[in-house]
Structure formats: structure tokens, C-alpha cells
Design brief:
The chain is mainly alpha-helical. It has three domains: 60 residues, no CATH class; 87 residues, no CATH class; 106 residues, no CATH class. Helices cover 71% and strands 1% of the residues. The protein is elongated. Keywords: Membrane, Signal, Transmembrane, Transmembrane helix. One of its GO terms (cellular component) is cytosol.
Length: 311
Amino acid sequence: MISSIVIGCAVGLILLEGGQASSFGINATVMDVQWSRDDVFRRMSGMEESSLFTSLSPVLGFHYLLGLSSSFPDDLEVNQQCRELLHIFAQRCISYVDCLLQFARPVRICQNCYSEIESLNNTYTNISKENTGNVSCRNVLLRSDRLQLVSVLHRDMNVIWDTADCEKCLTFPLGSFSNDSLYFMASLNQTLSCFDKYEQQGNQSVVCKECKTTYRGLNDLYNRMEKNQTVCFDIEDAMNITRRLWSKNFNCSFPREEIVPVIAVSSFMLFLPIIFYLSSFLHSEQKKRRLILPKRAKSSTSVMNIQDRHS
């Protein structure tokens, strides 16, 4: 009974210290009871180990037993070499995720995270080999349970890389930017430098005037790369940001070349009914004239014939 009270007080003091104590339903005056934490643990230290575990079992014993049983003999199926591969794979995942988050905004993952994804895939390839020593790490780490955590992580990591279309703007096996991508980045830097230069003057119209040629060249280059399917998400995101700066921040615009044919076709379709009805009207009037003229000519000749007979 005393041990239960001591354990209850110890748990209560610990909860109070963590700021999570609640009302115990006992109307006692705090000043009348001067328990200290040292007194509680001093009383606990005098108890026998068996009685202490018995007193703790309703609250803490279950979790304590789980901690003791956390290691199973089945873990012996994973040999040391496979454990090392698993540890390396975990480190590669951490490095890759760290790189993704570091270059998430603006997106620069294709030009900065190639070495991380390559190391991750190489480690997974080593795990997937048929035999590593006398034990197949592929069976132990990839096929031993329904969760297949290593395979799922590897797949999801590569989904991000594939979605970014990084292979469209990189050269292999070095993983560096292709010539088209490097030329685009140079044009992008030139355009942004022009923005910064004339933005400091405080007149947005100056930016629109002085940077129009540079921005148009960058936009045309991007359209060609998009047509040739050499645009990765790094370049796409950079172009989207530049277009927002041009249109929203500086309120600049210029007629795009593809709009001219649209305007021409729309204008033709707009005037087509007018042309049709006008041509129909003119054609009908001309036809009426052709029908009337022969009748007049015929009647006049008949009158002349009658006059000739009477004379």
C-alpha cells in the first residue's frame, strides 16, 4: 500500500514537472504536504526491486517489457554485410532528400542532386544483386515482408526525379547540363541582369523598353527547347518565374508571333458573311438586269415592225 502511494506520488510529480498534471480530485492543501522529488526517489530506492516492478506494472511495466523484447532472433537472418548495405542506403536516402529540400524553391534539383540520386540507385543495385557473400540481400531486404519498405522508398525517390524530367537537360554519365541547357541559363542570367539594372531606376517602362529584345530571345529559345523536348523542370520553373516578373511585376507585354495568324483568321471569319451577302446581292442585281434588257429590246423591235407594216 505504501509503495503504491509512493509510486503514485512519483508519477504525479513527474507529470507536474512536465506541465501535464491534472486535477486528482483530492481537496488537500499544498502547504500541508511538502513532498519533494528527492524524498520520493529516496523512498523508492529503499524498496526491493521485485516489489518496485510489481508496483510499476499497472502503469509502466507493459512498456518496459516491450523494450526488453524489441530484439528478435529473426534479426539474425540479416548478415552483417546486408546490414551495412541497408545503412548505406539509409544514408543515401537522407542525402537525396536533403538535396531535394535544399533546392526546392526555386527548383534546381536536376543540376544539383544528380550525384545523390546516382549514389542512391547504385546502392539499391548492390542490394538487388542475386548474392552478396553467402546470403542474398535481395531476398532479405526486399522480399522478406509485404511492406517492402526499401523498394517502396527507392521507387518514390525516383518518381520525383522522373517527374522533373531531369534526363531531358542532362548529359550522361557525367550528369552535367547539356549545351542547350547551358545556353538557356546564360540567356536567363542576361535577362535577369537586365531586369535588375533598369529596375533600380524606378521606372517600369524602362525595363519593358530596354529588356524587350533580351526577354524575347529568351522566350523564343525556351519555345524551341520545348518543341525539341529538351526542357527539364529546372528550366521550366526558371522560365515561369521570369514570365511572372515580366508580366506581373513590370507590367510588360508584347504581341506574340502566334497571335498574328489567329487575328488574321478571326478577321477573315468575321468579314466572311459580309462578303458573302454583298456578293450575293451584286450577283442578283446583275441577273435581273440581264433578264429585263432582252424584253425591252424585243418589244421595241416588235413596235418597229408594226409601224413598218402600217406605212
